[in-house]
Amino acid sequence: MSLLLTALIFNCLFIACFTAPQEHVWTEEVVSYSGFQLWSITPHNKEARDWLWKIRCDYELDVWKESRSGNSTMDLLIPPDFQTELKLRLTDAKIPYVVTISDVQTVINNANSNVTISDKISKAQGHKMDWSSFHRLIDIYDYLTYLENTYPQIVKLIKIGWSYEGRPLYVVRISSASSPDTNPAIWIDGEIHAREWISSALATYIIHQLVEVDGNAGLWSNVDWYIMPMMNPDGYQFTHTKNRLWRKSRSISGKFCRGVDLNRNFGYKWGGLGAGRIPCSETFRGPAAFSEPETAAVSEFIQSKSTKIKVFLTLHSYGQLILLPWGYSYPAVYPPDYDELLALAKNAASKFVRFKYSVGNTVELLYTASGNSADWAKSIGIKYTYCVELGNIGTYGFVLPPSLILPICEDFFPALKVFADKAATTTN
């Protein structure tokens, strides 16, 4: 089979699947995942992968991780009603699978525990933040305000806009410069996908380390940091109150559906492969590029700093991957300076000890994703742009236990020095 024909078949499967509805009812009720299971399925060849994609489309299953090549696994969320039938079909097809989570709601209940920090400790330190729990939005925003008030010489909290539901969108600037926009800069964002709680936890941990740990002052002595821990506050709030696995924003996107995938709404190659056309799709691209107040505010702010921002990191989960542009085309295409981006990413990845990260092109390691933020950042001239998929590799999927927050954050932080050094020495 020719490469062109293979690509056409894959694209047809991908477009058909990712433009199909996956949320059938617009509901504000609390969603339970009792009885739902996470299956890790290993198709050993292309025919098995294509067959599995058809199964995923026919049953409209939620893909937590794709299988791209070789013996890589696909993680699928399986509702109780389909489990018996799918076990038989996978057995008949001789495709092995493992049930990695036997009851998703049980894991959610254990992971979504209330913050237990005492009022006494909270009053003593001036905030409720720690990194042994996943915190609610108010705790995160209160912590950012606390930092600005406590360290005004280096911290500025910048409100860049409002979410669809009227929540403020904040960027934290950490800088030793007496005048803004004089140093080279690094951008970091988290929580563009609401269910990926570890991304905002890491972003706030990075802020904490830069601001409150004296030994890290050298990281901002000649580099400015722009960090946005919460790009999707509406979706994040919804994951805590109604649906832990909600992914998108909360704008009205159809008669029966809500939300836009903010990481398909950026204005470079918007609307292509891997971006849903139907509002109910989990990857719905939105009615137009930058149609959402969240992406519009972020893009406007970044463009105002684009000549200074040298490194762009957008934090996601899961999979332990550092992904490079471009993400819009299958087969994969690469920017002219791909080798330079790859070398920096491999250097950063070499600093991880506990969690090993793979490095490579977005399409080759993950999937096509037109209109994603890292591609857009690269397209406007930011040289080193990466999407980072944080730990784990599938044991917990999106419902990471709080006990892994600190290990993931502590393991990641040393890699930041690699990016900071590169930002400080990049002139173009």
Descriptive notes:
The active site is at residue 389. Residues 1-19 form the signal peptide. Residues 133-423 form the Peptidase M14 domain. It comes from Daphnia magna. With 428 residues, the chain is of the alpha/beta class. The chain has 2 domains: 35-102, Alpha-Beta Plaits (2-Layer Sandwich), CATH 3.30.70.340; 126-425, Aminopeptidase (3-Layer(aba) Sandwich), CATH 3.40.630. It has helices at 3-18, 46-58, 83-92, 104-111, 119-125, 137-150, 197-212, 233-241, 293-305, 338-349, 362-365, 373-379, 405-425, and strands at 37-41, 62-65, 74-78, 97-101, 155-162, 168-174, 185-189, 224-228, 309-317, 321-324, 358-361, 384-390. The longest helix is centred in the C-terminal third of the chain and has 21 residues, at 405-425. It is globular, with a radius of gyration of 21 Å. Mean pLDDT is 91; it is low at 1-16 and 18-25.
Provide keyphrases for this structure:
Aminopeptidase, 428 residues, Alpha-Beta Plaits, 16% strand, alpha/beta, single chain, four-stranded antiparallel sheet, globular, eight-stranded mixed sheet, disordered N terminus, 35% helix
Shape call:
globular
CATH topology of the largest domain, anyone?
Aminopeptidase
Percent of residues in helical segments?
Answer: 25-40%
Runs in which pLDDT lies below 50 for 5 or more consecutive residues are 1-16, 18-25
Counted by DSSP, the helix tally is 13
What letter string, H or E per element, gives the SSE order? HEHEEHEHHHEEEHEHHEEHEHHEH
Strand portion, in percent?
Answer: 15-25%
- What's the CATH class of the largest domain, please? Alpha Beta
The fourth-level CATH homologous superfamily of the largest domain is Zn peptidases
